[in-house]
């Protein structure tokens, strides 16, 4: 029989054990080994059965065991020490509190998914894991962050395989009362409630659940509220599920409802109000509209409110291809923001204009969430140096007239939260070298360019560590593989072969990630005979562990999974290559440390960052990757290998895959495997161990989320907070009026004439170090010289006279307006490099409250024939 109602019955802890509840509900336990060890000692078997989840553990411990622990003085001392440590961690001064004044009082960080721990399954892949690591590192550094997301009652799907190897999805129901969450309540004890207006007089209501991530609160909105209609209750049913309207409602709840949840949280708890709002991907972009509505209610006009919102907003894009961006029919958005919908009092046309693709190549009938995110944020960034470049090119249409390199999208390369991803054995090895306190600081705060103390660790200790981790992975793989085959219908008698799967002394390669086509899960299968030779080599074999989920709606991705699974099922190779279903955080924490090599072979440049290789590197695993994402900027042959790419628009996709797969096989056969098996007299692979040491010493400090969050604070949050404070209502109104005036007058702005004066002739050549005086005549129309900056831009030129590596510098006005209304600007141009060299001039708007000269997307350049003796100076 099935129950008609479900309850979560929580244990009543004896008074001396009450601190266990607080320790279990603060997710710091997920990255704090001492707290996990404390819970494990409560009931080792129960801890294993609970999957390392303290709440599930406490729900299963017998009353007799709890009574015995309450009388155990040694356990009580450990418990008191853990509780005191958590209190000190949550209230003490950390890196952020030691910085100079002026940093934001609080930052609100919005993301559609958060990967904190497997005990709170609210993530699908890299975006969510990155968001979780951001929160954890902010906590470690003392950054006053408030996380905002949605609570999905089914989370992301659980993956299994059919007997034929086809991916199957399962959606277990999550009960918030059984998760490490508490309901945000008003002072009178009633649940805090968020409401959004929907067309037709309907209402979308949501409760707010709170997870405590160390020092950082994470607010998760939940639409499964009794007062909602059936459709509204299902808005937060699944992560990345449903059709267009379902996704739109999710993103409205995340953005608009999320701001309202933050306001409720700050009002109820007294937490400082955020001065900076950070949107992690475009899904939460509607938060800017809600902030405009708030200011409009206080009397601000739309344009002034927009300037206030932009000043304190940061937008991070993780998407390297337009197809990865959420886009909605403009009519659907208009229906939800029109009469009877959300944001009353705001003209729906102003809303649509923020997301409209009104640039060459865009589709004006679509509403683009990333475009809105960029228009609502004064500061934006990609997540690696290469991805920043790709993003500037992808969104260049929003800044017409500017070269892609001048598009105001910066880059902050992602990092990973080392205490979450470093194996305890690796941490203990480091702690033996420098002490536990210094080791913890090195992993959390970072700041050092190198971890040189790694050089003092003996080769034998490093090799013993690597074999221990590989052995643990072999055990984990066999256990998971056995469970997978049972789910596929195999009987115990059929599975004896699994005891021989993988070998702790064989070179082990890992490959695990989502399965969109550009990540090329099956590139390794391009030449199956060649791969089989590598797997079964008599002297230098390799073994490969693969994991990954395809999106439920992506049949192409599912076919890739099935293709790989069928290969791994082959009795000839199944002891050397395995596919593990249901890839998630719990699996990843065993997989990264146990691999010797981490493989990544996306289509370049479609990997925004790719943090899995960073987690592997922190455990001494070497990277073998296409030069994409973070590997493009930090690759060095001292600690890894680069897979050559067959770039070029004329390259056929199949041909490209063939060439790059062949390069991968060659690297494995000729360089990677020989180095792993090259043993000295003592049986140690000295050159391999040196690469491991260099990976830890050089890559370790770079890939930290602590480094990443400090960059966000210093380069984005602090300037955004300063800009936010500068825009009081009067300043915002003045800035909005100035922008409107400049835009209206810009068609009349022109560069009329450019003249170059030199001591020698300007006949296409000049000497290095000589100086040219530029004289530029411009028309400003209704604008004043204080509204603009006239610049010279100089640099190298290609055969088509396009500038590259250019530098700009301002020219000075020489006096009053001439009789013809023109103004004259002058300045010296120093010829500071040899080879093809050229220059141009341009006019940009300028204002003290602009973050960048390209912000308005307005520029005036010389027309053809405007230059006399100008142009290319040196060949």
Can you offer a commentary on this structure?
With 875 residues, this protein is an alpha/beta fold. The chain folds into 4 domains: 18-91, no CATH class; 101-415, Glycogen Phosphorylase B (Rossmann fold, 3-Layer(aba) Sandwich), CATH 3.40.50; 419-703, Rossmann fold (3-Layer(aba) Sandwich), CATH 3.40.50.2000; 747-845, Immunoglobulin-like, CATH 2.60.40. It has 28 helices and 29 strands. The strands form 6 sheets. Strands 1, 2, 5, 6, 7, 8, 9, 10, 13 and 14 form a 10-stranded mixed beta sheet that branches. Strand 16, helix 21 and strand 17 form a beta-alpha-beta unit. Helix 9 (244-269) crosses helix 10 (287-297) and helix 11 (302-311) packs antiparallel against helix 27. The N and C termini lie far apart (87 Å). The model has no long low-confidence stretch (mean pLDDT 93).
């Amino acid at each position: 029989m099935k129950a008609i109602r479900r309850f979560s019955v929580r244990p009543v802890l004896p008074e001396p054990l009450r601190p266990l509840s607080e320790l279990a509900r603060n997710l710091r336990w997920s990255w704090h080994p001492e707290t996990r060890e404390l819970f494990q000692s409560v009931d080792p078997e129960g801890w294993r059965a609970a999957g390392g989840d303290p709440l599930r553990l406490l729900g299963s411990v017998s009353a007799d065991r709890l009574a015995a622990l309450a009388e155990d003085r040694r356990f009580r001392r450990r418990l008191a020490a853990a509780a005191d440590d958590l209190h000190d961690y949550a209230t003490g001064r950390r890196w952020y509190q030691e910085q100079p004044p002026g940093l934001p009082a609080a930052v609100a960080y919005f993301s559609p998914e958060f990967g904190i721990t497997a005990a709170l399954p609210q993530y699908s892949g890299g975006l969510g894991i990155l968001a979780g690591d951001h929160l954890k590192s902010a906590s470690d550094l003392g950054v006053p962050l408030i996380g905002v997301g949605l609570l999905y009652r089914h989370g992301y799907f659980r993956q299994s395989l059919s007997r034929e190897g086809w991916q199957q999805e399962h959606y277990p129901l999550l009960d918030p009362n059984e998760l490490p969450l508490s309901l945000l309540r008003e002072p009178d004890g009633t649940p805090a409630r968020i409401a959004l207006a929907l067309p037709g007089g309907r209402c979308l209501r949501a409760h707010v659940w709170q997870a405590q991530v160390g020092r950082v609160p994470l607010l998760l909105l939940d639409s499964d509220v009794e007062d909602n209609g059936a459709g509204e209750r299902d808005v937060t049913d699944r992560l990345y599920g449903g059709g267009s309207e379902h996704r739109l409602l999710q993103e409205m709840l995340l953005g608009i409802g999320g701001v309202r949840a933050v306001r409720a949280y700050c009002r109820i708890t007294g937490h400082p109000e955020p001065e900076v709002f950070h949107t992690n991907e475009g899904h939460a972009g509607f938060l800017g509209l809600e902030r405009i509505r708030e200011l409009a209610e206080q009397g601000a006009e739309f344009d002034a409110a927009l300037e206030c919102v932009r000043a304190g907003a940061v937008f991070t894009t993780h998407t390297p291809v337009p197809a990865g961006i959420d886009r909605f029919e403009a009519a659907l958005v208009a229906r939800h923001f029109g009469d009877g919908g959300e944001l009353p009092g705001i003209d729906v046309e102003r809303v649509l204009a923020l997301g409209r693709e009104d640039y060459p190549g865009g589709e004006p009938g679509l509403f683009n969430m990333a475009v809105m995110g960029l228009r609502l944020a004064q500061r934006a960034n990609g997540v690696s140096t290469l991805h920043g470049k790709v993003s500037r090119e992808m969104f260049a249409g929003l800044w017409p007239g500017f070269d892609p390199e001048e598009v105001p999208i910066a880059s902050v390369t992602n990092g990973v939260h080392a205490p979450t991803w470093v194996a305890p054995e690796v941490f203990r090895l480091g702690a033996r070298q420098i002490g536990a306190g210094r080791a913890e600081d090195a992993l959390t705060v970072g700041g050092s360019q190198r971890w040189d103390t790694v050089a003092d660790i003996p080769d034998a200790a490093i090799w013993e560590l690597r074999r221990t981790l590989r052995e643990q992975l072999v055990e984990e793989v066999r256990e998971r593989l056995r469970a997978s085959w049972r789910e596929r219908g195999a009987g115990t008698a059929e599975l004896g072969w699994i005891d021989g799967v993988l070998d702790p002394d064989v070179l082990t390669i890992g490959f695990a990630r989502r399965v969109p086509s550009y990540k090329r899960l099956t590139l390794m299968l391009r030449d199956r005979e060649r791969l089989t030779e590598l797997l079964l080599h008599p002297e230098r074999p390799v073994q490969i562990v693969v994991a990954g989920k395809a999106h439920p709606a992506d049949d192409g991705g599912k076919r890739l999974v099935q293709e790989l699974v069928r290969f791994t099922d082959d009795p000839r190779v199944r002891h050397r290559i395995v596919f593990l279903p249901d890839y998630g955080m719990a699996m990843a924490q065993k997989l990264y440390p146990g691999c010797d090599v981490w493989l990544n072979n996306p289509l370049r440049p479609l990997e925004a960052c790719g943090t899995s290789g960073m987690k592997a590197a922190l455990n001494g695993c070497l990277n073998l990757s296409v030069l994409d994402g973070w590997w493009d900027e930090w690759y060095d042959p001292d600690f890894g290998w680069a897979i050559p790419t067959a770039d070029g628009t004329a390259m056929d996709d199949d041909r490209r895959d063939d060439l790059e797969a062949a390069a991968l096989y060659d690297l494995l056969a000729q360089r990677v495997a020989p180095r792993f098996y090259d043993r000295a007299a003592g049986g140690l692979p000295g050159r391999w161990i040196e690469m491991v040491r260099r990976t830890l010493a050089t890559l370790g400090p770079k890939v930290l989320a602590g480094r990443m969050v400090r960059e966000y604070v210093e380069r984005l949050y602090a300037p955004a907070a300063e800009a936010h404070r500068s825009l009081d209502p009067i300043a915002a109104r003045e800035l909005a009026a100035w922008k409107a005036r400049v835009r209206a007058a810009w068609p009349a702005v022109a560069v009329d004439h450019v003249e170059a004066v030199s001591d020698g002739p300007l006949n296409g050549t000049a000497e290095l170090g000589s100086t040219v005086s530029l004289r530029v005549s411009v028309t400003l129309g209704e604008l004043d010289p204080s509204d603009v900056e006239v610049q010279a831009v100089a640099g190298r030129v290609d055969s088509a006279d396009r500038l590259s590596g250019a530098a700009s510098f301002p020219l000075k006005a020489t006096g009053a307006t001439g009789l013809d209304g023109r103004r004259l600007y002058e300045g010296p141009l120093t010829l500071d490099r040899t080879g093809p060299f050229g220059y141009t001039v341009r006019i940009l708007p300028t204002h003290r409250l602009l973050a960048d000269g390209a912000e308005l997307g307005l520029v005036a350049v010389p027309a053809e024939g405007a230059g006399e003796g100008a142009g290319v100076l040196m060949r």
